[in-house]
Amino acid sequence: MKTCFVIIGYGIKPDLATGRKLNLDATFENLIKPVFKSLRIECFRAIDKNKTGVIDLIMYEWILKADIVLADISTLNANVIYELGVRHALRPYSTIIISEKKLMQDLPFDIDHTIIHQYEHLESDIGHTEVLRFRKLLKNVLLPIIDKPTTDSPVYTFLRNLDAPKFKRALKEKVRKGIAIPPSISDLVLPAEDALNKNNFTEAKKFFNAALFYDKTNTYLNQRLALATYKERPNNKAALNSAQKILSKLNPNETTDPETLGLSGAINKRLFEITNNENYLDKALWFYERGFYIQQDYYTGINLAYQLNVKANTITSKNEAISFYLQANRIRGKVIEICTHLIKSKSFKDRGDKEWIYQSLAQAMVGLNRKKELKSVIHKINELSKGKFDLTTFNEQNKKLFALMASFEKRHGKIR
Fold first, then answer.
1. What is the CA radius of gyration of the chain?
2. 198 falls within a domain
3. In 3D, which of 282, 249, 248, 250 has the Cα closest to residue 265?
4. Are both 160 and 231 inside the same structural domain?
C-alpha cells in the first residue's frame, strides 16, 4: 500500500491575516482522508503516528519516505511551510499543496508561483457542496501522480543535476524502534474532544493533560485544556485561576491569537461576576476588545458589547459612562452587520453555526431595542433549532441586559 503523509496543523488554528479560526481537523477528515482511502493509500498526519513524543524523528522520516506528501498551508503555519520546504529539498516529485482560498492573496513569494489547489473553509466546518467539489478535484490531481509522477519540487526543477537522497537501512531501523510505543497523540485528542462535546469536562481534562505530556507547548492543546478546566466549575475561583494559569503559557497579554484572547476574556468575565473585583472586568474588556478587532466575529462582539454595558454601570462619571454605553451600541451595530453579511452569503446554507449567528443577531437587536425585526429572527432560530431553542436562557440573558440598561438610565437618563 502506498503512503501519504499530510503536513497540516490539527485542531482549530487562527488565520491572523483574516482573523478567522479554521478547524483543520475538518479539512483532514472531510476533504483529504476520504480521497486517499478510496484509492487505497494510507493517509496520516504526524499526530496520528507520534507514539513517543519524538515528533521530529517521525516527521522527517515520513517527509522523505512517504510516496506522496500533501501540505495544507492554510493560516501560513510556520511549521507547515518549513516542512514543505524540507520535502521539496528531499524529493523531486509527488508533493501536493492545498490552501483555504482566502489565503491566496498573501502568499510568500517563494511559493506563490507553485500550483496550489484551493478550497473554501467555513471556519467551524466545510460545506457539503464544497466537500464534493474538492474531493473530485483532489482525486483528479492524485491519479497522474500515482501512475507517472513528474517533478513538482522547485528545487529539482531549477537545480536539475541534483540527486535525491536515499533512505538508509540503519536509519529505518532506528525509526522503527523509535515509534514502537503507543498511544499516538490523536488517540488522546479524539476522545478528549468527544468528552468536551458531551460536557464531560473532567474526562476531557485527563485526555488533554495526557496529550500535553507528549507535546507540552502545543497552543491548541493548552487552549482546550484551559476551556475544559474553567467549564468544569465555571463559578469556582480556584478553577478559573487554574485555567488562567494554563493560558499564561500562551502569553495572552501579547498574543494576537483570537482563541486565547476569547478564553482570557471569558475567564476574567466570570472572575468579575463572582468577586465583583473591577480589575477582572477591565481585563475581560481588554481581551474581548482585542479579540474582536482582530477577528471581527459575532460571538466575541456580542460578549464585548455586554461587558461594555457592565462597565458603564460601574462608572460614576456621567460622560465616561455614556461613552461606554454608546460604544456597546456601536459594537452591537457591527455585530448586526457581521451576522447579516454571513446570512446573505452564498455559503451560509452550508455553515454549521447558523443558529448561533441568528442568536447573536437577536441579542444585538435586543440591546438596540429593535423589536420589530427581532420577531422574525426568533422565528428563524426556532426553525433552525427545530423547536428546541432555549428561550429560557435567551430571556435570562435579556433580563440581565435590561437590568443593566434600566440601572444606567436611572442614573444618567435615557440615551437617544
1. 24
2. no
3. 282
4. no
Instruction: Kindly state the helix (H) or strand (E) to which residue 99 belongs, with its residue range.
Output: strand 95-100
pLDDT at 179: 43
pLDDT of residue 178: 46
Q: Are the C-beta atoms of 74 and 27 separated by less than 8 Å?
A: yes
The CA distance from 29 to 81, in Å, is: 21
One domain for residues 109 and 257: no
Please give the helix or strand (H or E) that residue 343 lies within, else none.
helix 318-344
Residues 398 and 289 in one domain: yes
Task: Give mean pLDDT in consecutive 10-residue pieces for the chain, a chain of 416 residues.
Answer: 91 76 91 95 85 68 91 91 94 94 79 89 87 96 90 91 74 49 74 91 94 87 95 93 96 92 95 95 97 90 95 93 95 96 87 87 93 87 72 79 90 81
* 112 within domain boundaries: yes
> How many structural domains compose the chain?
2
Gap between the Cα atoms of 183 and 161, Å rounded: 42
Query: Which long-range contacts does 276-283 make (Cβ < 8 Å, 24+ apart)?
Result: 278/314, 281/307, 281/310, 281/311, 281/314, 282/311
- The CA distance from 75 to 18, in Å, is 9
Calculate the alpha carbon distances from 407 to 10, 21, 272 in Å.
46, 36, 18
The whole-angstrom separation of Cα 60 and Cα 272 is: 47
Please report, for the domain that includes residue 361, its CATH number: 1.25.40
B/e letters for 365-376, b = 16+ CB within 10 Å, e = fewer, are bbbbeeeeebee
Would you tell me how many other CB atoms lie within 10 Å of the CB of residue 164? Answer: 13
Query: What is the rounded CA–CA span in Å between residue 285 and residue 305?
Result: 9
Record the cell numbers describing residue 232, joined without a space. Answer: 468544569
Instruction: Provide CB contacts within 8 A for 334, sequence distance 6+.
Output: 296, 301
Tell me whether residue 183 is in a domain.
no
Rounded-to-integer distance, Cα 96 and Cα 76, Å:
16
Domain end among 149, 178, 207: 178
Give domain status of residue 192, yes or no: no
Task: Show the domain range for 288.
Answer: 221-412
The whole model's pTM is what?
0.78
Please say which residue of 116, 147, 178 terminates a domain: 178
In degrees and rounded to multiples of 5, residue 167 shows phi and psi of -95, 110
Contact 118, 104 (CB under 8 A): yes
